[in-house]
Amino acid sequence: MPHNPQDSNRHITLIGAGLAGAVLATLLARRGWQVDVYEKRGDPRLKGYGGGRSINLALAERGRHALRLAGADDAVMAQAVMMRGRMVHFLDGRTDLQRYGRDDSEVIWSVHRGELNVILLDIAERAGAHLHFDRGLASVDFDARTATFTDPRDGSTHTAGFVSLVGADGAGSALRGAMASQTELGERTEFLGHSYKELEIPPAADGGFSIEPNALHIWPRGRYMCIALPNDERTFTVTLFLPNEGDPSFATVRNGAEARALFERDFADAVPLIPNLERDFERNPAGLLATLYLDSWHLDDRAVLVGDAAHAMVPFHGQGMNCAFEDCVALAEHLDRQPDRAAAFAAFQAERLPNARAIQAMALENYLEMRDRVDDDDYLLQRALERA
Ligand code: FAD
Asked: What's the CATH fold of domain 5-79+112-189+292-368?
């Protein structure tokens, strides 16, 4: 049972037990805060991720710093796969590894989203956070400081008091919607006009990886591209990025047969690697890509947003989660340092909003670079000179 939060000046209520929610819960619980976390979905540790799709994320040093502070780095790294650089797949089948740094001290890591979430939830609970699953935030009474949650299994509603709410409930944040009814957040969403679909490269016949495991594979093709990140289970998650309009686009590549024709023409060396191309293409949903800008991330001392809820971005810099983890470190520090929560939230926003804006811009720029420039001869020469 959650205790009465009004009794405590070190109580906080988090909405969302995804990546940011679980890390922030841990950081605050480790600092002695009483933390209640409400998550819309069921407990993924009960259902398991075994049969589900593998979706992976690039974890960088920025994110690992937060994981170390949360005591989660060792457990996460035990299932991470090192990516030393980009493996560019040219149209003629040639490949070229472009290293991220001079040696293996400058690399990024591929982590399985589902496994990462499970590890972080275990660590949050062990740190003392109270996790409440099947509790989707439905409405907030900011005057009474009560939040109402719906249980998606039976539609029942549950109300809990709060001192402050932290929205770690992702790009479609319900808390952000509730805050917007009280104050002007300056919210705008810019859609990229491109979407993505995930496909899978299974293990090779001998059970190993079927292509170089320690790389982020890219098939750049000008206006569009494919990427593939390795999973510790010896598979790769392939993501196809296409415009929504034009040719080719998700308007012209509409089914498995059309996807196969596109791959045979433009990603020929990937075709034998993806035996279930048609099935994956037709079964997996297309995801939209957008950047979310807000001018304000908090409502006085009553609510604040972190992670995608505050600054969702396109995934081309692989920094959305890493940036969300940095938010968690910053917010935990400001809350600890500054007993006036409105001041702590304002200081958090002042520190992090300019950073988030810069990373959002870099993520948009990187789409042009990844799909267009990494196979450009001048660009390759310049990179080679930089590395020399
Ligand atoms: P989420 O991970 O979305 O978690 C939100 C949580 O809140 C979920 O558990 C959800 O169920 C819960 N929730 C939602 N609504 C409610 C509600 N009403 N009440 C209670 N709970 C609720 N980032 C990287 O750093 N590296 C990458 O390589 C990378 N690749 C990406 C590839 C793709 C295709 C995409 C789309 C994103 C990628 N990202 C990457 C971005 C990354 O996924 C996000 O930035 C990250 O998940 C943000 O974490 P979050 O905790 O803020 O939100």
From this structure: FAD/NAD(P)-binding domain (3.50.50)
